[in-house]
Please model this.
Amino acid sequence: MADAIHAEATSGHAEGGHGHAHGDLPFLAHHFETPAQQFDAGKLGMWIFLVTEVLFFAGLFCAYAVYRRTHPQIFIVGQHFLDVKMGALNTIVLILSSFTMAMGVWCAQTSRRKGLLVCLILTWIGAAGFMGVKFVEYSHKFHDQIIWGKDFNPTRHVEHEGGAESAHVENAAAPAAASATPAPAAAGVSTVEHSTVPSAAAGPQGLGRTQEEYSVEKAEHHALDAYALASQMRDLHIFMGIYFCLTGLHGFHVLAGMIVIAWLIYGAFKGRYDGKYYTPVDLVGLYWHVVDLVWIFLFPLLYLIH
Model:
């Protein structure tokens, strides 16, 4: 009986102490006993979420690899319509924003409120800059109808000097490109005498060119000729579909990051984060680094590898 009374008193004291601890630490959720336990649980949950995100992008990368193997010509020609300079600029912007995010986590851990606020704002500006560059890229492609699906119709628009009015150049070089295109090869065999793109890659349009020829065509022809060549390739819209799918999904993650970083900025302004409580900053930092890492893969795959 005495043991039972002692056990009940000890339990009541422990509960009182637990409640007192929660009162001293308003950020500690009621279902966690210590801040360390709450931090570890939050970090585990974030890592599980990030693993699912990596698996999701891995499936898209597999689709990229399959199409790259079976339709190499659409990647070689399609890359002409991607601006490497803008892609490189976005890469630099994201890497810098990842650095400022890491510094923000350090500032939160060391209770540097002003430094945290500055780093979060710089990170948000970097994310906004990335989306701005991507908007410029997308606008050009929609303007020239270099998009996916049945609406794919590459048409170069040339701005008149001193005026905002644009003129259509409806694939003026198409006849030349068509005349330069070899006749469809029987049974998928190219008419080119030396090493050619595999027959599966030659495509129904009969463009049995070597990869070297495509690279030369991409590097030396005028942009107008590239539009004309694109109009002859019925499968080129597949490349644009892959491009918009991968970069668009990544852009959605950047936009989501901007929202949560804005939330962190508000919390930092209110003084919510310090050396005792910085879990949200740390978790958003993990998310932002993964977003940066995905783009590190996307940039060379879409813009650089020929």
Notes: Residues 1-20, 160-208, 214-224 have pLDDT under 50 and may be disordered. The domain at 34-159+169-304 is CATH 1.20.120.80 (Four Helix Bundle (Hemerythrin (Met), subunit A)).
